[in-house]
Amino acid sequence: MVFTLQRYIFRDLLRVFLLATVGLTLILSLGGILRPVQEYGVGPRQVLHILIYFMPITLTFVLPMAALFASALIYGRFAVDNELDACRASGVGLLTLIYPGFMLALMVAIANLLLSFHVMPYFVHLAEKSLKADAKQILFRNILRKGYYGLPPDFRYFIYADYADAANNTLYGIVVVQRENDRVKRIDTAEAARVQFDTRDKSSEMQLVIQNARQIGAAANDYWVEIGSLLLKKEFGSLLGDKIKFKKVEEMKKIRADLMQFGPIRTAAGKTYTQLAAELLARDLGETLHAGRGSFYELRNAQRSIRLSATACALDKEMVVTLTPPVLVEEYDPRIGVRLRRLTCDKAEIYVEEDPADPRLGLNLHGVRDEDGGGLGTQYVVPDLALPDKIKQGLQRGPVLDVVSSPARVESLLGGPPSSILARFQAALRRVMGMVDAALQSEMSSRLVFGIGCIPMILIGIALGIIQKGGHLLGAFGASCVPAAVLGAAIITGKRLTENVDRGGSSGVLVMWGGVAFLILLTVLIYRRLLRQ
Fold first, then answer.
1. Among 223, 309, 408, 412, which has the highest number of CB atoms less than 10 A from its own CB?
2. Is 82 left (phi over 0), alpha (psi -120 to 50) or beta?
3. CB atoms within 10 A of CB 489
4. HSE on the CB side for 295, CA within 13 Å?
5. Cα 527 to the center of its chain, rounded Å
6. Helix runs in 204-355, H state only
């Protein structure tokens, strides 16, 4: 008889629980896909895929609330109809009647832990792959609809075009704007450009093949300059945001073992690495220039060799070495050893491209005068120059993150303290590393707390449903939401404390587990009262 009674209660619990889960999941999933639809301009087929992929994310939060609602409603009705009193009068104990609700709570807790640690990150990864597989359609659809598209995740590059021909992978009337610190850093423009996509598991790279390109910098005295053919490689990165909360437990372990596995740290380390390369270049260049009159510094690529001389050099911009005039530049063809031109200019800059795998250099000359009578105009750009071998060897003394995050190693490479720019990049990198470490600790604890906290939360809903039998049944659900809100507040507060790298994370973890302890204590007190009745 007892088993029949428990099965009867569990059947009612499961029916209400499933109905509430389906309804809440559909409503919240539709709300969750609004951002990707608005931000990336995805099509109808992609909307359906994203809706399916986002359901496990929604279920992580829906399951506890649906179980809480079902428990308060069913046990409240059980008490209102005097079925609870009849069972207890027949010798059936309260804990025996609570057993179906406890089993539901245990199932929800296990499902929640599986969803948060494994299923939800997996489906986010599938949604990411689906969006990246349609990167071409997203780009062309946005340009056709809005006339431009900003490349995620940091939106440092914006592509404007008058017309997009998706069939031929071509953009017409193209303008590419590069931003840095909310300011325009560089503008490239051309009549047409071909678009190529290389979609991989963790990234999606877009290549713009631009012919007859023109370029201008951000300075007031910069001029438009013809630079011929240009290949721009830009990585889409993570379209849904590279965040710890979307990582599997295995991925979090890998990130903890190697922080360069995480996108934001890889980006911050890349900037620091590039600035370090610029400072090593400035030091090496300065030593050559100070060696004496007539000393030349040589930069090479496959097609040309550049020999330059200047009074001095300085680091007054990020990833840029400024040469002090008078600047003399001689360009040679290394294959035949013939000088192509001899230039003087009023201003010259060597910029380092942000690519930790293979940093490349570019030479930008302003107010150019060709001493051989070639008439080059006001500006001349020499792109795609290789970093000197001496500097490469210094940079490759260890892993990128180990090299750039250690003040001692940076000072050893530079032979002195870094510039204020590099010191700022290093401080930002160390701060990001601390934030990621804190986020890993916070995310692991919050997922465990939320999953385990489902059990006392649902048990409290059962008890309040029985206690509130004299009132409205939904009142019991409303009252049981208060302990749930306390647990949510403890998790949110604990995460913020944990992720605050200035205060340390131990107090935040204690706050999160304190929320679970409070619910367990409240559960014990409430059931002591019920058992005495």
1. 309
2. left
3. 12
4. 14
5. 45
6. 249-257, 263-289
3-state SS class at 308? strand
- Supply the mean pLDDT for the chain: 81
Model pLDDT, residue 220: 45
Helices 506-532, 94-114: crossing angle, 10 deg rounding: 160
Residue 203 has pLDDT above 70, yes or no: no
Nearest-angstrom CA–CA distance, 429 and 402: 11
Residues of the chain by 3-state class (helix, strand, coil), percent to 5: 55, 25, 20
Q: Tell me the Ramachandran region of residue 415: left when phi exceeds 0, alpha when psi lies from -120 to 50, beta otherwise.
A: left
Structural contact between residues 389 and 358, judged by C-beta atoms closer than 8 angstroms: no
Complete DSSP assignment for 109-151: HHHHHHIIIIIHHHHHHHHHHHHHHTHHHHHHHHHHHHSEEEP
Inter-residue contact 397 to 403 (CB < 8 Å): yes
In three-state secondary structure terms, 35 is helix
Separation CA 409–CA 351 (nearest Å): 23
Q: For the chain, give every domain's residue range.
A: 2-133+433-532, 154-235, 250-418
The pair of three-digit structure tokens given for residue 238, joined into one six-digit string: 């993570």
Q: Is 377 helix (H, G, I), strand (E, B) or coil?
A: coil
Residues 6+ apart with CB under 8 A from 277: 352, 359, 387, 391, 395
Residue 196 has pLDDT above 60, yes or no: yes
Amino acid (1-letter code) at residue 503: R
CB neighbours of 174 closer than 8 A, spacing ≥ 6? 159, 160, 161, 162, 189, 190, 191, 192, 193, 208, 210
Strand 347-352, strand 338-345: pairing: unpaired
Of 262, 314, 263, 258, the residue nearest 285 (C-alpha):
314
Please enumerate, as own/partner, the contacts of 112-117 that have beta carbons within 8 Å and a separation of 24 or more: 112/60, 112/63, 112/64, 112/450, 112/451, 112/454, 113/447, 113/448, 113/451, 113/452, 115/56, 115/59, 115/60, 115/63, 116/60, 116/447, 116/450, 116/451, 117/248, 117/249, 117/447
- pLDDT band at 471; cut points 50, 70, 90: low
Mapping DSSP to helix (H, G, I), strand (E, B) and coil, where does residue 250 land? helix
CA terminus-to-terminus distance, the chain: 23
pTM of the model: 0.73
Q: Is the peptide bond before 44 cis (omega within 30 degrees of 0)?
A: no
- Rounded to an integer, what distance in angstroms lies between the CA atom of residue 221 and that of residue 327? 17
Indicate if the pLDDT at residue 525 is higher than 80: yes
Q: Residue 188 has what pLDDT?
A: 81
Structure confidence at residue 33 (pLDDT): 62
pLDDT at 450 over 90: yes
Backbone angles phi, psi at 8, to 5 degrees: -60, -45
pLDDT band at 17 (very low <50, low <70, confident <90, very high): very high
In which region does residue 388 sit, left (phi positive, over 0), alpha (psi from -120 to 50) or beta (all else)?
A: beta
Q: Phi-psi bin for 16: left (phi > 0), alpha (psi -120 to 50), beta?
A: alpha
Give CA–CA dist 19/24, Å, rounded. Answer: 9
